[in-house]
Structures are given as structure tokens and as C-alpha cells.
């Protein structure tokens, strides 16, 4: 029963979230089921390394990127790593908030967990904007000396790396908080 609950409320919603986020962002119309299955496999493999928390998070991000590379080969760029990280940031933020809500009172954990699973899909209210932002990001990411831009590609790359490193730092803080969670 616990495995079924983990599958139904853990793996399935998050894999669906990642698949939808990526397909809406990159405006992907084909091979969505293949992407969903590959991300599911990566997620199951991540459960194996869950004992080493930081490896779990990094393996998941790189694993989803590899799934994209396997499914869409030429359509995938290195900046898609930042897209996956952005989508994962929302999950980490919700989980972090959940920990603070249940830290002292474990009696309402499951109720808040179900609310968190529902809130996972809130960003899709703005799904029509995902691809526009992604195209703008790609355009600014790729260097073009012939065109005058408000922000240079090197600046955007540095900002992206700083945000990604900040995200990893935030994950580490969340892990420390989780590991100090009363048993």
C-alpha cells in the first residue's frame, strides 16, 4: 500500500510536472510519452541514490537533461539544463515550505502534502508564457555581435550560473533542514 501511495502521490505528479513543464517551455508536440517514461526511469533510479541527498538532486537534474538529449537530440541545448533547474526550483521551494509548516506538528503532514501536490501545478496557469520566455532566453543566450541588445549573452550566462549555484546552495540548506527534522 505504501508503494502505491508513493507512486501515486510522489513519483507520478512530479514526473508529470517535469514532462509538462518541459513540453510547454520548449513547445514540444512529439514523443511526449517517451519523455514521460524516460523521466520516470530516471526518477526510479534517483530513489536508489536518495540516501545521498545532494546526489539525488543533481542526478535528477542531469538525468532529465539526458532524457531530453535521448528524445530530441538536436533540439536540446545546454541552456535546457537551466530550464530543468528552474522547474525543479518550484518543487524544492514547495517542499521547503512544507517542512516549515509541519516541523512542530506532524499530525497535519499528509494534508499539507496533498496541498503541496496540488500547488505543484500552479505554474501552468501561465503555460502560454513559458515558450515565449524560453525563446527570448535562447535568443539572449546565443551570442550575436551584429545585433544590438540590452543585455549581452555573457551577462545572461553569468546570471544563469549564479542563479543555478544559488539554487544548489538553497537545496543544501533544505537538506540540512530536512536532516535536522525531528524523527
Summarize the structure.
The chain contains 7 helices and no strands. The protein is mainly α and 183 residues long.
Which terms summarize this structure?
single chain, mainly alpha, 183 residues
Query: Count the helices. How many?
Result: 7
End-to-end Cα distance? 22 Å
Radius of gyration: 18 Å
Dominant shape: globular
Beta fraction: under 5%
Task: Lay out the secondary structure.
Layout: H1 2-26, H2 32-48, H3 53-72, H4 80-102, H5 109-119, H6 127-141, H7 153-179
Helix pairs in contact: 1-2, 1-4, 1-6, 2-3, 3-4, 4-5, 4-7
Protein described:
The protein has 183 residues and is an all-alpha fold. It has one domain. Helices cover 75% and strands 0% of the residues. It contains seven helices and no strands. It has helices spanning 2-26, 32-48, 53-72, 80-102, 109-119, 127-141, 153-179. Helix 1 (2-26) crosses helix 2, helix 3 (53-72) runs antiparallel to helix 4 (80-102) and helix 4 (80-102) runs parallel beside helix 7. The longest helix is centred in the C-terminal third of the chain and has 27 residues, at 153-179. The mean pLDDT is 80.
Amino acid at each position: 500500500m505504501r508503494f502505491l501511495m508513493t507512486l501515486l502521490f510522489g513519483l507520478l505528479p512530479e514526473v508529470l510536472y517535469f514532462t509538462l513543464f518541459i513540453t510547454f517551455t520548449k513547445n514540444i508536440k512529439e514523443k511526449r510519452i517517451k519523455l514521460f517514461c524516460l523521466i520516470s526511469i530516471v526518477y526510479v533510479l534517483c530513489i536508489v541514490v536518495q540516501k545521498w541527498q545532494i546526489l539525488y538532486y543533481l542526478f535528477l537534474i542531469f538525468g532529465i537533461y539526458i532524457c531530453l538529449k535521448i528524445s530530441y537530440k538536436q533540439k536540446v541545448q545546454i541552456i535546457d539544463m537551466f530550464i530543468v533547474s528552474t522547474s525543479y526550483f518550484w518543487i524544492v521551494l514547495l517542499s521547503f515550505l512544507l517542512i516549515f509548516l509541519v516541523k512542530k506538528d506532524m499530525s497535519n503532514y499528509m494534508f499539507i502534502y496533498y496541498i503541496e501536490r496540488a500547488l505543484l501545478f500552479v505554474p501552468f496557469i501561465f503555460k502560454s508564457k513559458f515558450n515565449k520566455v524560453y525563446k527570448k532566453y535562447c535568443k539572449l543566450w546565443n551570442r550575436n555581435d551584429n545585433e544590438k541588445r540590452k543585455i549581452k549573452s555573457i551577462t545572461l550566462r553569468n546570471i544563469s550560473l549564479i542563479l543555478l549555484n544559488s539554487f544548489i546552495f538553497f537545496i543544501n540548506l533544505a537538506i540540512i533542514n530536512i536532516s535536522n527534522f525531528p524523527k
